[in-house]
Amino acid sequence: MEKLITYFKLSKAELRKVIFPLKEQVRNAYITVFIVVAVVSLFLALVDWIMSSIVSIVI
């Protein structure tokens, strides 16, 4: 039982050290991830279209 109490005390102490992101930081990270995913998706769509066009011409 002593180990469990020590574990919870140490966990509580560690949680006090955590710095949670501000709302603005979360929003900026969300926007950045959205833009990167959109750009990568468009790039992959373009590559797919080019590859399928080449295969269609060959066949």
Structural class, from secondary structure content?
Answer: mainly alpha
| Overall outline | elongated
What is the H-and-E element order?
Answer: HH
End-to-end distance: 73 Å
The biggest beta sheet reads: none
Number of helices: 2
Parts with pLDDT < 50 across at least 5 consecutive residues: none
Q: How many β-strand stretches?
A: 0
How much is the average pLDDT?
A: 95
Helical content stands at over 70%
Tell me the fraction of residues in β-strands, as a range: under 5%
What integer value in Å does the Rg equal? 25 Å
Family: Belongs to the SecE/SEC61-gamma family.
GO molecular function, one term: protein transmembrane transporter activity
Function: Essential subunit of the Sec protein translocation channel SecYEG. Clamps together the 2 halves of SecY. May contact the channel plug during translocation.
Keywords: Cell membrane, Membrane, Protein transport, Translocation, Transmembrane, Transmembrane helix, Transport
